[in-house]
């Protein structure tokens, strides 16, 4: 099974299909040659709550 990752090169930004076992490993974008780490998870889960803290002023 493959997963899709977005090339981090801002001038490229190609959607790349990589093997799922490539997670946590470096891959090379065949379009621009940038090597980057494939995230272990497709979408990093956001921590529930507490992220939108506001700062009280005054
Ligand atoms: Zn690229």
Proportion of residues in helical segments: under 10%
Task: Output mean pLDDT.
Answer: 84
Number of DSSP strand runs: 4
What value does the Rg take, in angstroms?
A: 16 Å
Q: Per the principal axes of the C-alpha atoms, what is the gross shape?
A: elongated
Summarize the helix and strand pattern as letters: EEEE
Uncertain segments = none
Individual helix count = 0
β-strand amount: 25-35%
What profile does the largest beta sheet have? 2 strands, antiparallel
Distance from first to last alpha carbon = 54 Å
Largest beta sheet: what is the strand line-up? 1-2
Query: Which structural class should the secondary elements be placed in?
Result: mainly beta
Q: Compounds present?
A: zinc ion
Fold and architecture overview:
- This protein has 58 residues and is mainly beta.
- The chain has a domain at 2-37.
- Helix content is 0%, strand content 28%.
- The chain contains no helices and 4 strands.
- It has strands at 2-6, 15-19, 26-28, 35-37.
- The strands form 2 sheets. The chain has a two-stranded antiparallel ribbon with strand order 1-2. A two-stranded antiparallel sheet has the order 3-4.
- A hairpin with an 8-residue loop joins β1 (2-6) and β2.
- It starts with a strand and ends in a 21-residue tail after the last strand.
- The structure holds zinc ion.
- Zinc ion binds at residues 7, 9, 12, 14, 29, 31-32, 34.
């Amino acid at each position: 099974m493959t997963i899709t990752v977005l090339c981090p090169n801002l001038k490229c930004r190609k959607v790349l299909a990589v093997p799922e076992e490539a997670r946590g490993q470096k891959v090379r974008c065949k379009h621009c040659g940038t090597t980057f780490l494939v995230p272990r998870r497709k979408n990093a889960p956001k921590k529930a709550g507490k992220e939108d803290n506001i700062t009280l002023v005054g």
